[in-house]
Amino acid sequence: MGSFVGFYWTFPVRWAGFLDLPDDVARAAQASRTVAYQRALIRRFVDWENGRLAHEVVAMEVSPDRGTAAIAGDVARAGHLCREAGSTLAHVDFHRNDGWRPHLILADALATLRQSGVPTVGLDAEEIVLDGQRFDPAEHFSMWRVRDAEERARRRQDVPVALATALAEVPEGRGHWKAVAELLNARKVPTLGGGATWTLDNVRKAARAVTLGAVERGSAETLRISSGLSEAG
Fold it and tell me: Could you list the pLDDT tens digit for every one of the 233 residues in the chain?
């Protein structure tokens, strides 16, 4: 019989407004299927081991599409609980399943934890029954990748139009960029990166990016037409 600390993590989804998790692990599992899946898998493992789940730690990455150093602080927090309770840190090792959700910084943080004397155990991300329904993590992450790609394509098409409209509606002059940001926020237009909040700085950068993109597309079209005329001649 052993003691364990469960460690569960996920990425934010900016376009869906999923930007943080409740501190309470049960509520976090209600908010995130990925967290709920990890929690169920680890609790099942602890039961099989006739063990005790001393603590649970939930963490959300700060970036929606890559691992960052922020996760190291969450691992350190879980490690502190492990030392206090004499526990093993249990986590779901997504990377072991053909490289799903790779997170090299997380892997390094767990390795550092082991070197400091805290044991860890990584579970395979296998299919389970979750809330009475089959849950296949591979299908789940694949679906989210498709939805994310669709959302990025929609933003590339819709956000520049909304930005151009706001820029045209707000008079030039003092406070122009701030007023545009406030207008976009009031209309709930996501940023080009999928964020929820426009600021003076990202409006200015987005306007430059959209203008530059339009100029580059126009130049490419002119070059294409010119090349076509030359070939025809």
Answer: 699 999 999 998 877 778 889 989 999 999 999 999 999 999 999 999 999 999 999 999 988 878 899 999 999 999 999 999 999 999 999 876 665 677 889 999 999 999 999 999 999 999 999 999 999 988 887 887 788 788 878 888 899 999 999 999 999 888 899 999 999 999 988 888 777 789 989 999 988 887 765 434 444 443 444 444 433 33
Strand locations in the chain (E): 3-10, 52-60, 88-92, 120-123, 128-130, 133-135
Strands 128-130 and 120-123: what pairing?
Answer: unpaired
Q: For the chain, how many helices (H) and strands (E)?
A: 7, 6
Spatial contact of 121 and 146, defined as CB atoms under 8 Å apart: no
Return the amino acid letter for 228: G
DSSP 24: S
What is the pTM assigned to this prediction?
Answer: 0.72
Please give the structure tokens belonging to residue 179.
């007023």
Helix or strand (DSSP H, E) at 95:
none
Q: How far apart are the first and last CA of the chain?
A: 84
| CA trace torsion 130, 133, 137, 140 (10° rounding) | -120
